[in-house]
Amino acid sequence: MLSSPRPLWGGAVSVSLPERFIDISQFRDVPDFQEAFTDPHADQCVTFETLELLPEFEDDKIALHHWEQLMEHNEALPDNTTVSSELRELKHLPGVVCSVVVGNQLIAKHKEGEIRNRVRLAVFIVRLREQETDLLISISTPIEVHEESTSKDAPSSLSFGDPNDEAARMFLESFQIHDYGLFA
After folding, report:
1. Of 1 and 54, which is predicted with more confidence?
2. CA-to-CA distance for 172 and 168, rounded, in angstroms?
3. E runs forming strands in the chain
4. What is the mean pLDDT of residues 9-37?
5. DSSP secondary structure string, 76-90?
6. CA-CA-CA-CA torsion for 4, 38, 68, 173, nearest 10 degrees?
7. Which residue of 8, 38, 46, 133 pairs with 183 in a disulfide if CB–CB is 3.0 to 4.6 A?
8. Which residues on neighbouring strands pair with residue 112, listed in sequence order?
9. Helices (H), the chain
């Protein structure tokens, strides 16, 4: 799969994502603390957010905390599958902790009521303790779409469900911080 480097926050951070992702700020406002990309055909979304470090959560629990916060914010329902959690290393940030949680949620897109899609939500928290910052990276990937959802055409995309987990893999392999002044 072809990828392209994406500058985030004016180039202070960079990451490579599959070329199929487009910058959401091209068609709607995105808050200054956030960068967001979407594959509109597969209805997949990758979001980057700068957050204040939450020192009350241990490294191995912080991603689960944010995963649960996103579930609440999205008014999602839990899926009965297991939520997996692990600590990972980032290739270009040795010694920086990256807490990861992956699990499925049942989410109504655009508040479609009871019409819910099964979405695999991967949450990565990059802990920058010296900068008192948690970087939240979320990758939402529909894996089952309700026939009445506005996303009903997503399963026809070759990238539907991101079967090779390209977005997550590329993030882990390419994420770099070039200017820590962003977090001052």
Report:
1. 54
2. 6
3. 3-8, 13-18, 22-23, 34-39, 44-52, 77-78, 84-88, 97-107, 117-128, 133-144, 176-177
4. 95
5. -EE-SSPPEEEEE--
6. -10
7. 133
8. none
9. 59-73, 166-174
- How far apart, in Å, are the Cα atoms of 104 and each of 25, 46, 80, 119, 167? 26, 16, 8, 5, 16
d(CA 16, CA 174): 6
Distance CA 176, CA 152 (A): 35
Q: Are strands 34-39 and 22-23 parallel, antiparallel or unpaired?
A: antiparallel
Residue 145 pLDDT > 70, yes or no? Answer: yes
Q: What is the pTM of this model?
A: 0.91
| pLDDT in the model for residue 1 | 61
Question: Which amino acid appears at position 135 of this protein?
Answer: L
Quote the CA–CA distance of 129 and 183 in Å, as a whole number: 11
Tell me how many degrees the CA angle 24-131-91 measures, rounded to the nearest 5: 65
Q: How many residues does the chain have?
A: 184
Please give the Cα distance from 58 to 173 (Å, whole number): 24
